[in-house]
Design a protein that fits this description.
Elements lengths: L13 H5 L21 E9 L2 E6 L5 E5 L4 E5 L4 E4 L14 E6 L3 H4 L1 E9 L5 E11 L4 E10 L10 E6 L5 E6 L17 E6 L19 E4 L3 E7 L5 E6 L5 E6 L35 E3 L5 E7 L10 E6 L4 E8 L2 E9 L4 E6 L5 E5 L4 E8 L2
């Protein structure tokens, strides 16, 4: 998400980062910048074990989550990495992971982090968890870790989602809860699965959520979603969401309170076994995506961009592709979204963030996933 919304500032410069000490392993593979088609320089800054997400801290350090549950405190200026202690037990089977991580709006004073992960439930089932903890950077430790929301203990499947965004005023937390590959709960008013949730900062349902009076779970903001892997506010305060479709039909949605986005009754893709799903059509009662992909790119992450380093890309969404091995730019104009650019990155891309200086930072997927810094070509 756009880190300027969190009020994070930093004094480290692009020049310092560009001269960062890079571990030798970071450049072990051919660099994507070898392609003349890319409109940016690509610098490998570090290598991680199946990284999942990342967050910048005010001093320029990065927190990187890894699939098996490790949280890494990384200094991009020196390449140093420290494993943060105090993380909870993570069920990393299949799609399970230590997932998203976002500093609190008042992190500079509170040192509070919000993060999500998958944990073992009853029997063989599992669930998504939203938690908080304070970060002691000096000792690389989480303290006072507390689960503030738990998804329903309902599935042995994937689709945890678990993406986090704070409202622009910093008063509310929006959290994505996937359908856990169960489909129908996305339409179930009593379930939190397949939903965007609006919570208070302590994890309780926010007051006056739009569907509570209709008998929905009190936390539900919108419903009819599948696997929601990105969520971010734009500069006008609109909430954008990205989700992975079934067999094709990946989506970008403009999230509005109380609306039904159709899953599994409508999708621009089909079931993996080839069964048809009705496409979104005008008048079907479902909110259609603003952008969709067929064939799929298997999106892994989303970031909103409105920085000065790439001025032509202000007010854009950036989407990473796993099967697509890509980075896509979506141009925004009010409530409209348009596919603008598609770049072949040569590797599965898991996550993207806007850096404090306006550079784009992306994480490759896999056991030796690189952290890449994208800056304008000279």
């Amino acid at each position: 998400m756009n880190l300027s919304m969190l009020g994070l500032t930093t004094t480290f410069s692009l020049t310092l980062l560009a001269s960062a000490v890079v571990p030798a392993a970071a450049n072990a593979r051919p660099n994507a910048s070898a392609s003349a088609d890319l409109p940016f320089e690509v610098k490998a800054v570090g290598t991680f074990k199946s990284p999942w997400s990342m967050a910048f801290l005010p001093n320029g350090n990065l927190l990187v989550t890894q699939k098996e549950g490790e949280l890494i405190l990384f200094d991009p200026a020196t390449g140093s990495k420290r494993t943060v202690s105090g993380t909870p037990a993570v069920s990393s089977k299949d799609q399970g992971a230590l997932m998203d991580i976002v500093p609190a709006p008042d992190f500079a004073a509170s040192k509070l982090l919000y993060f999500s992960y998958s944990e073992t439930g009853s029997g063989a089932s599992s669930r998504v968890v939203l938690a908080t903890a304070t970060l002691d950077q000096a000792s690389a430790a989480l303290k006072g870790t507390k689960a503030i929301f738990r998804g329903q203990d309902a599935s042995t499947g994937g689709h945890y989602s678990g993406r986090i965004a704070f409202s622009p005023d910093g008063k509310y937390l929006f959290f994505t809860s996937g359908d856990r590959q169960l489909l129908d709960p996305a339409q179930d008013p009593k379930s939190t699965l397949g939903k965007v949730l609006r919570l208070n900062l302590d994890g309780t349902p926010a007051a006056a959520n739009p569907l509570a009076a209709r008998g929905f779970h009190a936390a539900v903001w919108s419903y009819g979603h599948r696997n929601l892997l990105g969520i971010a506010f734009d500069k006008q305060g609109r909430l954008w969401e990205m989700e992975m479709g079934p067999r094709h039909g990946d989506e970008i949605n403009l999230i509005k309170p109380g609306l039904n986005y159709g899953w599994p009754r409508a999708s621009n893709g089909n079931h993996y076994d080839g069964r048809d799903i009705p496409d979104h059509t005008r008048g079907d009662g479902f909110e259609a995506p603003k952008v969709s992909w067929n064939p799929a790119i298997s999106p892994g992450g989303l970031a909103y961009y409105d920085a000065e380093l790439f001025p032509k890309w202000k007010n854009s969404l950036f989407i990473t592709g796993l099967s697509g091995k890509s980075l896509d730019r979506i141009s925004l104009d009010g409530e409209n979204a348009t596919k603008a650019d598609h770049w072949d990155m040569g590797e599965r891309i898991r996550a993207v963030r806007t850096g404090p200086d306006g550079a784009l930072w992306v994480l490759e997927d896999g056991p030796r996933g690189r952290l890449l810094m994208l800056t304008p070509k000279r």
